[in-house]
Amino acid sequence: MSDDDMKAELERLRAENEKLKQRPAARATGLKVSEKGGLSVYGLGRFPVTLYKEQWTKLLDMADEIRQFIKENDDKLKTKE
Predict the structure, then answer these.
(1) H-run or E-run covering 56
(2) Is 37 left (phi over 0), alpha (psi -120 to 50) or beta?
């Protein structure tokens, strides 16, 4: 590879790197059964949220209560960008 080719490739890679840095991290959500038999939800944060089925059922049964709590405490709660 000639010097000009290497410089052109380096510039292309730098531009691609900058473009990737500026793009918001798109996290796909997904579900998986863990090794221990729990239900893991991926894509909410850095690590999966894993609970057993009875814990998920209890949490899902509280959905209206959680929504109401969020509404009542909206001014205190932060939003992650």
Answers:
(1) helix 53-61
(2) left
| Side chain identity, residue 42 | Y
- CB-CB contact of 48 with 35 (8 Å): no
Nearest-angstrom CA–CA distance, 42 and 33: 11
* pTM score of the predicted model: 0.62
3-state helix, strand, coil in the chain (%, to 5): 50, 15, 40
- Beta bridge partners, 72, equal none
Distance of CA 9 to the CA centre of its chain: 32
Residue 50 amino acid letter:
T
Looking at residue 35, what is its pLDDT? Answer: 95
